[in-house]
Design a protein that fits this description.
DNA-binding, binds adenosine-5'-triphosphate, IstB, ATP binding, hydrolase activity, IstB_ATP-bd
Amino acid sequence: MNLQLARLHELTEELQLAGVETNATALAQQAAKEEWDYLQFLERVLQSEQAYRHQRKQVMFTRMAGFASLKSLEEFDFTFATGVPKKQVNELATLSFIERKENIVLLGPSGVGKIHIASALGYKAVQAGLKTRFISASDLILQLTTAQRQDKYKQVMQRSVLAPRLLIIDEIGYLPFSAQESKLLFDVIAKRYEKGAIILTSNLPFGQWGSIFANDTALTSAMLIEFYTTHILSKLKGRVIGSKRRNKPD
Ligand SMILES: Nc1ncnc2c1ncn2[C@@H]1O[C@H](COP(=O)(O)OP(=O)(O)OP(=O)(O)O)[C@@H](O)[C@H]1O
């Protein structure tokens, strides 16, 4: 390493400009070849740092999001899934629902692509630099009950529920909740209401949600009201391509 590169290395390390260090030599060569002026060179160097940071953020957010699997909308076959409204899904893929802090509910039988669509929208959000969290309803309840026991409810609520710009709660209704667990889930939905977007997936139509929430009709109605202004994709169907669970308990 020549002396100038060694000094550059020290400076970029101290100033935490890893993108500049990675790209400086190549950009200097390109600048000489294409006869950039000094300001042009400076701009390109700063752009390279910006791109480097954006990419690192995407990688970190993807890891932190906890997706069950990485899916994209490009991989989703709309001709196969006849009940999935392509136009509406593409509109949701613009992510304006996140800016507007709106919710999405995906309802349909097992294996029709609910997780696929939810994860694909989540992955798009992550790529756009929006903090996203994917969690199953039962894991979320487990986290919150543990937090309550350990007197850390507020912190966990803040970190896991309120901090992400998009919260994806998967598999509501796969297992029924106790009265206490139902209240926790309601607390999540109510606390995020108009503060951050949620995507919910469920195998059960709204009419059967009472059975998920310990037959508490007041709480179930309150929960449904929270989704009044939601984008509801409730007619998801099509040939089932695959499912994680073929033996759903009664
Ligand atoms: N229309 C589709 N095009 C491409 N792949 C699909 C489609 N529908 C489902 N799949 C694939 O089938 C598998 C099951 O889909 P997914 O897990 O999204 O279903 P689900 O409706 O969430 O089911 P469950 O309720 O059991 O969780 C996934 O690998 C998914 O990528």
